[in-house]
Every structure is written in C-alpha cells, then in structure tokens.
Amino acid sequence: MNTLSSPELLSLFMHFLVLSLLGVGGAITTAPDMHRYVVNEHGWMSNGQFTASIALAQAAPGPNVLFVAVIGYNVAGLAGAFATMMGIMLPSSVLTLWATRFGRARRDTIGVRAFNAGLAPLTLGLLLATGWIISEPSRESIGAIALVAVTVVVMVKTRVSPVWLVALGAVVGMLGWA
Amino acid sequence: MPELDDTPPLKQPASCKELFVVFTWLALQGFGGVLAVAQRELVERQRWLDAAEFVEMLSTAQVLPGPNVVNLSLMIGDRFFGLRGAFSALAGILLVPLVIVLGAAALYAQYAQHALVSHALRGMGAVSAGLVIATAIKLLPTLKGSPLGRWLCLLIGAITFGLVAVLRVPLWWVIFGLGSLGIAAAWWRLKQR
C-alpha cells in the first residue's frame, strides 16, 4: 500500500470517473485499462496483487464491481478505495437514473418497445455465455461439472435458496472433489 | 420449462428501509455475482417484478455503462420510491458487502496459500456458474410474447452466445452491432402489426 498525495488521489478518482462511462457490460470490461494505469503507469501495485484483487472480490459476497474498491484499497488504503469506487459509480449511476426515467415515460412508444424486445434475446444469450465462461475452470474436473449440473437442476426445479448450493460447493471443494 | 401463467399477483416494497434490507440480503447471498440471486429474490420471492419486466430492466442495465446489478438496483429503487429509493437499493447492494470485501482484502495475505481456502473457492466457482446458467434457462419463457417470433429470438440468442463465449468478441461490439440489428428487426415487426 502507498501513501498518495491529494493530487494523486484526485487523478486516481478522475481516471475511474472516465472508465465508468466505458464499462458497458460491467466494470470488469475496463479491468485491462485499470491494470495499465495502476500497475504499468504508476507502479502502485504488482501484477499478482492486481489479479488477486479481482479473484478476492469475486469470491466474496456482493456485486463483482467491488473489485474496484479492493484495487483502490491496495493502492492507497481506505482513501484509495473511496476514490476508485466513487469514480466508477458516479457517472454510470447518473446516466442509468436518467435513462430509466426517460424509458419509463415512453414505455408504450414503438421505440421503447422495439428496444426492449430487440435486446431481450441478446440479454439471455449473454447470460448463458457468462455462465459458460465462469464454468471454464470447472470443466476440468468431473466433480465440478457435476456441481454445475446439480446447481442448474436444483435452481430450475425447486425454490431452494442459492446460499445452500454455494455452501454445498464449498464443502465439495474442501473435500477435494471439485 | 416453467410456466409464467400460474404466478401470483405482484407486490411492492413497503418502504425504503425494506428496499435496503432486501438488497442487502440478496447481495450477501451472491457469491461470484448477484444476478442469479436477484432474479430469485425479486421475481420469485418478493414478487416486486415479473420475469418479463426483469429481462427488460436487465437489458437496459446491460446496454448502459456500469455494473448490471448496480444499475438494476438503482432502476428498481427509483421505480418504487424515486431518488430516495434508488439510493436505498444502491446502499443495500453495496454497503455491507463493501465492508466485508475490504475486511477480506486486509486478511487475504494470511490465508491466500491455505489449500482448504482455494479448494472451497473452486467448488463455489462451479456453483456460481450453474446459478447463472439456471437463471438464463428460467428467463427463456419471457421471450414467448416477443414480436421477433421464436426462431429469430433463438437465432439472436445463439449468435450472441457464439460471439461472446466462443469467439470472445468484445462485448461492446456485440451489444451495439447485434443489439441494433435486433432492435431494428423488432421495430419493423411492430410497425407491421
């Protein structure tokens, strides 16, 4: 962890402010540029620390965007986490609120209906693709493939809370079967 | 495939506090992503939205920059209680998980090499993949009423999957390229009606 001066913290904040508007499909799509900025350009953390920051946020509960806070924390402690999170959240949140109100006021117009209907199949295709990509490390072991399959069946057929499946995954993993 | 017809009537959150609590709870259940849990909690358990509305909001959240679930929480909060609701839902989805993840970051160095921890994470990773796949399957029936028709929907979904999962085309191109084609096709079909 480093001690950043106020101008440095401000430029960290400004950098994430810009990245916020580029992160279509989630902040993770801008991770390569965050890497370029904090690792290569400023040397605020190592390559390994950067990768570990992302893995850690993905393993913890909550939205994956929290990896941005972990990166900020590893750059400059709580002040860094505050700078990166505020930067990544502000512009996209303002835009989202504006767009959702705009869309709601014109819900029945042909434009908004075409927008919703045209994107729905794409959204579901993307969800499937995300599941496929996340399952990549799991496809190397039979136990993990079985876990993926059991999860799909239980979720589709029953109303069991996902927490129990995550706990099952942790236990199966600890036994070395995944 | 589950039917949509037998769903009970929709409800509304009673207060901003309830929004905060429900979003905190769903965020805390979301290991490796919150989307699957959001669908279960908001559509199936709280019944604040029906499945079709969920897909609509998710589509919008996806096109906009910013994390999908965070955008989704803002949109849902705003819909029920305006700006105050948006901030309540946003605070719910971020605040407690933020404290946990920063605590984990501080502890991480000590336990990173622990085999039990990395093995457990592998198992949890497999489950989170299954959760996302199941969510996609459960939302498929929402395409039934689409003006695009069944075959065009399936085709667009399959091309999306191929471009993103197999060819790894950057998401931006898929959304703006294929997305605008889909919107244009839907527009044309709606005009014809």
Tell me what the structure shows.
Chain A is built from seven helices and no strands. With 178 residues, chain A is mostly helical. Chain A folds into two domains: 6-105, no CATH class; 137-178. The mean pLDDT of chain A is 89. In chain B, helix 1 crosses helix 4 and helix 3 crosses helix 4 (68-111). Chain B has 193 residues and is mainly alpha-helical. Chain B is built from seven helices and no strands. The mean pLDDT of chain B is 88. Chain B has two domains: 16-144, no CATH class; 145-193, no CATH class. The radius of gyration of chain B is 19 Å and the shape is globular. The interface between A and B is large, with 98 and 108 residues.
Brief synopsis:
The complex is a heterodimer of chains A (178) and B (193). Chain A is mostly helical and 178 residues long. Chain A has seven helices and no strands.
Structural descriptors:
heterodimer, A: 178 residues, mainly alpha, 2 domains, 7 helices, 75% helix, flat, B: 193 residues, 0% strand
The average pLDDT score of chain B comes to 88
Give the oligomeric state: heterodimer
Number of domains of chain B: 2
Distance between the termini of chain B: 28 Å
Strand content of chain B: under 5%
Helix content of chain B: over 70%
Q: How much of the residues of chain A is beta strand, in percent?
A: under 5%
List the helices and strands and how they pair.
The complex is a heterodimer of chains A (178) and B (193).
Chain A: H1 6-22, H2 31-41, H3 47-59, H4 67-105, H5 110-134, H6 142-157, H7 162-174
Chain B: H1 16-29, H2 35-45, H3 51-63, H4 68-111, H5 115-139, H6 150-166, H7 171-192
